[in-house]
Hints:
Layout: H1 7-10, H2 33-53, H3 79-93, E1 95-96, H4 98-130, H5 136-158, H6 175-197, H7 201-208, H8 217-241, E2 250-256, H9 263-277, E3 281-287, H10 294-304, E4 309-314, H11 320-330, E5 335-339, E6 343-344, H12 349-355, E7 362-370, H13 378-397, E8 409-413, H14 414-419, H15 430-440, E9 444-455, H16 461-481, H17 484-487, H18 493-510, H19 512-525, H20 535-556, H21 566-585, E10 588-589
Parallel strand pairs: 1-10, 2-3, 2-5, 3-4, 7-9
Antiparallel strand pairs: 5-8, 6-9, 7-8
Amino acid sequence: MTTPLxxxxxxxxxxxxxxxxxxxxxxxxxxxxxxxxxxxxxxxALLQLWAFGTGExxxxxxxxxxxxxxxxxQHSIAIRTYIVSFYIAFACFGSGSAIARLLFAFDLVLxxxxxxxxxxxxxxxxxxxxxxxxxxxxxxxIAGLIGFGLFSLMLLERGSMPEKVDMxxxxxxxxxxxxxxxxxxxxxxxxxxxxxxxxxxxxxxxRDITLLGGIGPGVLLFLPLLFLQLYLISLIERRLDAKxxxxxxxxxxxxxxxxxxxxxxTIRHIDKAAQHYGETVExxxxxxxxxxxxxxxxxxxxxxxxxxxxxIIHVAQSGKAHxxxxxxxxxxxxxxxxxxxDTLIAPDNITLAVQNFSDEEIGVVGxxxxxxxxxxxxxxxxxEVLVKHGYxxxxxxxxWGLVGVPGMFAVYRTGPLKSVGEFASGMNGEDTxxxxxxxxxxxxxxxDHRVRYVSEVPTSFAHLREQRLRWFxxxxxxSSRCQDIITSSSMTIRxxxxxxxxxxxxxxxxxxVPILLFGIFQFFTxxxxxxxxxxxxxxxxxxxxxxxxxxxxxxxxxxxxALLGLPEYILFRAMRAWFTLESVLTIPINRRAKSFRQPSLxxxxxxxx
Length: 609
């Protein structure tokens, strides 16, 4: 799909709005905050590594880390020292009062070290009973994962977050996705184990290549093989379940704020898609207080349309959610499509997306947002899109585990859309929140790999920064607002597996730059000559594994030219890590912790789609 937009016209986009930094939930942070925090982290880490390196504390910490018990083997990195250093440095430069951040640091460090003490105590008991201790490398991995998870949990408890909303948790059909996950995991483990332990020449060669697995190709193959199977299942499901002749009248809602540079093209593309669809299409433009001539241009474009019944509605209250909620009120057809004003859909997008609703279980459908091309981030963004939306999202759809359908182009069954409640205002991630809540009612949220459209990509570092700070905060905002699915007794794939993993991964990404710095320091300080840093393992996990998945996603999606963007994608991932760290620094820290509450759901919905 091509777009007539030039990079010059794209630079006219006005990206700042009330949604950029929700009041009370996000503080303004200087771009110098992250460098200052990293410098502090480096000083703290070096001080502790130096102290351990003197040998003065070997009587208490023989492993030269905060380890209180004997273990078998060695570790490659002092992960506990790293976690403690990060916690303290983050608290020094986070948002909120000095007292609140001091209490945050104390709570984090104390909890983490107490959990580590518990791990060490269990090892001591095991040693006394069996005579052999646990492997230190395994326990350190566990400690690292606990450190990541604890950080996200404490942000949810002490950070300023959206209020919890009562969730309508419907009947969940868990047997099919659980069986799928179990069977694909067994196959992936068997195949990766076979590769890892085989003595084929090609496998031996891979072990010698740093980027492809000094720790063994089998380890890196498990997740790609798992998601590849799930992806193939999702393709088969779409082929079997989507009916080519299914049609229904459609309402399209388009929130618009100062979109003069693109709104006419957006409407023209919708009109072409409506012609292809051949059924009633209602277009509602929600002018959310534009100060340019968005309305005039949009009205002229709708007058020129041939297959649309369109109108413009003014929404005075600022914020995309308010515009969307007015659009939902105005939508009158069984299917409602949300399209961002800077999204250009392909002629077949409506037709292909609506076919999925022939399956009564489907509640939300998304697609793959391709970049326009021609700007400095577009090639890297294309690879990111193919990996996330073109590979992982369809795979998660097969598990009923997709959490968010991006609002650039999201197709909803109107009934549950109206009954689940309004789009959340005053927070980030209102699109993810909506698709998540519809999914928890008992419907499926899916990404159809066939639906591909063009969506705006920032053309400047300032715009990219604003976008990613919003996106990365949204994981915490949505988790806080929808915490019922995490804490309730109801078993849902999203609530018990996917959303907790997203929180863990967000913390891991925020800590990625610090751990690279820490690895360099530990390597050169050489605190324990018997435990050298495994550079091949770090390179494989941080660069090699993402490259393998990216190559697979590119080829599966039939975009081989995107392979040329792989070097830019690796740099782009580094920028993502930087912006993730900056994003969590914008979350205001409060003095008092607010624990997740057990939801007061007296009854659960017995309704099923």
